[in-house]
Backbone:
């Protein structure tokens, strides 16, 4: 019988960015989950779980293990060399979003207290200073991970994104297409951003205004616009040329964000078109940040 290598998911990220939500999503998916594990214990935990024949393990680490965080990139390389299927996810959010979340929960940031070395200091950093310090401390781990920007998405969206990413096949480049609205900000997790606001806008067509780029009428309207087809073809040519090089460079994920004004028509249409085209050759996921948010909005 062929043994399936252990699948290990490491979740790190900014405090308040949704790491607990992501960990719960993995627990729902059948992972054995450990929260706030110090990096010094990572290799021992993996060895123990291998003895127990665990197949899916998820671990969350954060800045509370600040002194040992530099160990993590090398540990991930060692685990991959041992044959484990390792995926690293980094949850991020804009500083303004994190400040608002902390204000709403009234929690203290883990770096708010200034360590004087004797354990007696009562001096505190302000919240923005603590967030920016945390961001700099996690920079090396962020560079080794797939980033998910949780600034503009709901908890249910984040859970869905995490499950989709973890469900993608290992050892293959996964191509993520994401539509968004410029008026709500550019996704921080995007590797490439294409602005399609110059294309004809179905919003100004009376019969199309309330529909989306996933609806046949909107798709037909945009398919008849030479500018929209030219944009689609140019993005396709760019990605077709460079994706093989990124795969050879051992990239696990590439996120292509396409934005229009409201994230409802043009960007959605192009994400649908591009995802369909590239799914023949690449593992492909699609997200619609604004539409997905509407889909999970609570009923009132």
Residues:
């Amino acid at each position: 019988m062929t043994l399936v290598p252990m699948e290990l998911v490491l979740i790190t990220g900014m405090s308040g960015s949704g790491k607990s939500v992501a960990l719960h999503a993995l627990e729902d998916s059948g992972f054995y989950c450990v929260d706030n594990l110090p990096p010094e214990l990572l290799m021992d935990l993996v060895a123990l779980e291998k003895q127990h024949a665990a197949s899916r393990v998820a671990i969350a680490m954060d800045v509370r293990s600040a002194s040992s965080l530099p160990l993590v990139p090398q540990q991930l390389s060692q685990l991959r060399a041992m044959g484990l299927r390792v995926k690293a996810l980094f949850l991020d959010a804009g500083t303004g979003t994190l400040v608002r979340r902390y204000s709403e929960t009234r929690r203290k940031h883990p770096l708010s207290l200034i360590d004087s070395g004797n354990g007696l200091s009562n001096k505190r950093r302000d919240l923005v200073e603590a967030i920016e310090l945390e961001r700099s401390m996690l920079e090396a781990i962020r560079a080794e991970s797939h980033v998910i920007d949780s600034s503009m998405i709901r908890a249910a969206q984040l859970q869905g994104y995490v499950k989709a990413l973890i469900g993608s096949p290992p050892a293959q480049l996964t191509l993520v297409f994401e539509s968004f609205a410029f008026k709500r900000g550019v996704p921080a997790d995007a590797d490439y951003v294409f602005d399609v606001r110059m294309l004809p806008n179905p919003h100004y067509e009376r019969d199309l205004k309330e529909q989306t780029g996933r609806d046949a009428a909107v798709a037909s309207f945009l398919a008849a616009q030479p500018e929209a087809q030219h944009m689609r073809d140019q993005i396709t040519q760019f990605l077709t040329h460079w994706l093989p090089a990124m795969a050879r460079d051992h990239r696990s994920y590439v996120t292509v964000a396409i934005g229009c004004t409201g994230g409802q028509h043009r960007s959605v249409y192009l994400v649908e078109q591009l995802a369909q085209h590239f799914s023949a050759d690449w593992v492909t996921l699609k997200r619609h940040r604004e539409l997905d948010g509407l889909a999970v909005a609570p009923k009132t």
